[in-house]
Fold:
Amino acid sequence: MFRALADATRRDIVRRTMTQEYSVSGLARLYPMSFAAVQKHVAVLEEAGLVTKRPRGREQLVTADVTAVRRARFLLDQLEALWLERIDRMGEILAQDEEGDAR
Amino acid sequence: MFRALADATRRDIVRRTMTQEYSVSGLARLYPMSFAAVQKHVAVLEEAGLVTKRPRGREQLVTADVTAVRRARFLLDQLEALWLERIDRMGEILAQDEEGDAR
DNA sequence: ATAACCTACAACCAAATGGTTGTAGGTAGG
DNA sequence: CCTACCTACAACCATTTGGTTGTAGGTTAT
Structure:
C-alpha cells in the first residue's frame, strides 16, 4: 500500500477521488499521459484497496476508500508510538544515573 | 518518502531504529541479505530523511527521525480531511433535497 | 445501424529497483 | 605492525515499474 502511494500521479488520483467520483477517462484527461497509463495507476490503487470502481453505463467511476488511508496512518502512528518507548528508556537511564549519584 | 517506506525491509529498519541505535552491520545481521544490500536500504532511508547516521569509531549508528514520519502522517491526515469535505457536500445535497420537498 | 466513446488487456520498451560480488579505505585491538 | 572489522562505492544482473501503442468488446446517442 505504501508502494501504491509511492507514485505522485497515484497520490493525486487518491486526492481527487477522495472528494469526488471520477470516471477513468475523466482522470486520464487530467494527466499528461495515455489513458492506458492512468488505467494502470487506477488498477494499482484498486489492488491496494485505496480506491474502488463502480460501473455507471459505459464508464467506471473511481472513488477513494478512506479506510485504507486510515490503515496507513495507523501504521505511522505505531512508529511514533515506538519513538515514545525510546523516550521512556532514556528516562529510565536518567533515573538510574540519579540513583548512581545518590549512592 | 512513501517510496522509501514502500519496502518491507526498510520499514523494519525504521521500526527498529525508532527505539534503538543500530550500526549498519548490526542491522545487516538481522536480514537474510548481504551487507551491501542493507547499506543501500539505509542510504535510501537517509536520503528520504527517515533516518540519520552518526559515526562512532569505525561504525555508523543509524537512528530513525520521528519528524519525517510525522510529515508522512500529516499528508495522510490531509487526505482524510478531504474526505470530510466530501461528507459536507453530501450534507449540502441532502439539505437541498429537503428544500425541494418543502417547496 | 453506425459512429463515437469508455474500458480492458496484451505486447513491448526504457529506466528504476533490489539484489549480488568485488575492491578499497579507515578504525580498533593483540 | 598487522589482522580483523566496519563502511563506502562501483559494476553487474534480474525483475519490477511506468510508460507506450494496438486491438477488441460493451454502451450511448444520433
The mean pLDDT of chain B is 93. Residues 23-25, 35-36, 39, 43, 57-60 of chain B lie near DNA strand D (CB under 10 Å from a C1').
